[in-house]
């Protein structure tokens, strides 16, 4: 008999953090990638608004729409048997009236198999987090660098205001967030945030003294063109492998070596 798969839940993450077990989280935007990550044991899959940059080729995360992120989330949700799938609330669904944020979160849970949303912001988003959680929509908060704030912050900058960052994370946790993602924050401050709040912390460019880590999968596997942030570690060169395979295919088509007799009916 096959082993029963126990899906990761928000409560699972809390128990892992309490026991000192690190949480592994990656982005996913399609069925085959999500299936591979899920089978490899990733705890949390994030259908991030980063798909605007990684998949759609935009310069920021702002252009991706709610309909588009639901389209990708539905694929990821069907692939994940174990991992908790979290979906970004894209701009401006988390910045307008609370009713719109609730409607967007509800659509994500109703139209996909995903079980939580992620909302950028801390203290100023506490009322939205509370409203979502009260409505039965689990929320992962996001503090530190907030890509949806790119035009306010003037770029992707390391966030160093420890007092504000701790206050944001605490407000999000108090409002009911089940976890807090911390992006581009000095390791010492991220450690202070982790010590100050009672929910798991997930870092990206936030050092090792957090409860888990997240990366953009395309960065991790070497399928990203251009600049890579300092905090990224590439574990493979999938882009190079694809390029080499395609070049070999094109050459064999042009010189007549493909298809060979073994590839014909």
From TrEMBL:
Cofactor: Mg(2+)
Entry's Gene Ontology cellular component terms: cytoplasm
Active site: 183
Gene3D superfamilies documented for this protein: Phosphoenolpyruvate-binding domains
UniProt subcellular location: Cytoplasm
Spans traversing the lipid bilayer: none
Keyword annotations: Cytoplasm, Magnesium, Metal-binding, Methyltransferase, Pantothenate biosynthesis, Transferase
Catalytic activity: (6R)-5,10-methylene-5,6,7,8-tetrahydrofolate + 3-methyl-2-oxobutanoate + H2O = 2-dehydropantoate + (6S)-5,6,7,8-tetrahydrofolate
Record CDD domains: KPHMT-like
UniProt-listed GO biological process terms: methylation; pantothenate biosynthetic process
EC number: 2.1.2.11
Subunit record text: Homodecamer; pentamer of dimers.
Family assignment from sequence similarity: Belongs to the PanB family.
Protein name: 3-methyl-2-oxobutanoate hydroxymethyltransferase
């Amino acid at each position: 008999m096959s082993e029963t798969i126990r899906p990761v839940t928000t409560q699972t993450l809390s128990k892992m953090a309490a026991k000192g077990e690190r949480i592994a989280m990656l982005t996913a935007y399609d069925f085959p990638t999500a299936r591979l990550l899920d089978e490899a044991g990733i705890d949390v899959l994030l259908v991030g608004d980063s798909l605007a940059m990684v998949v759609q080729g935009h310069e920021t995360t702002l252009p991706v729409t709610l309909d588009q992120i639901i389209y990708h989330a539905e694929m990821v949700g069907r692939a994940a048997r174990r991992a908790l799938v979290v979906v970004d609330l894209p701009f401006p669904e988390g910045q307008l009236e609370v009713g719109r944020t609730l409607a967007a979160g509800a659509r994500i849970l109703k139209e996909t198999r995903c079980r939580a949303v992620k909302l950028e912001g801390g203290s100023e988003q506490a009322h939205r987090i509370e409203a979502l959680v009260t409505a039965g929509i689990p929320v992962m908060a996001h503090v530190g660098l907030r890509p949806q704030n790119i035009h306010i912050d003037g770029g992707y900058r390391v966030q160093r205001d420890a007092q504000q960052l701790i206050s944001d994370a605490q407000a999000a946790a108090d409002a009911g967030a089940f976890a807090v993602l911390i992006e581009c924050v000095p390791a010492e401050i991220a450690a202070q945030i982790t010590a100050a709040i009672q929910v798991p912390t997930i870092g990206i460019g936030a050092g090792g003294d957090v409860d888990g880590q997240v990366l953009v999968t395309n960065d991790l596997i070497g399928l990203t063109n251009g600049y890579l942030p300092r905090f990224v570690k590439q574990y493979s060169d999938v882009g190079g492998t694809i390029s080499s395979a395609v070049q070999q295919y094109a050459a064999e088509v042009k010189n007549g070596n493909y298809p060979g007799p073994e590839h014909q009916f």
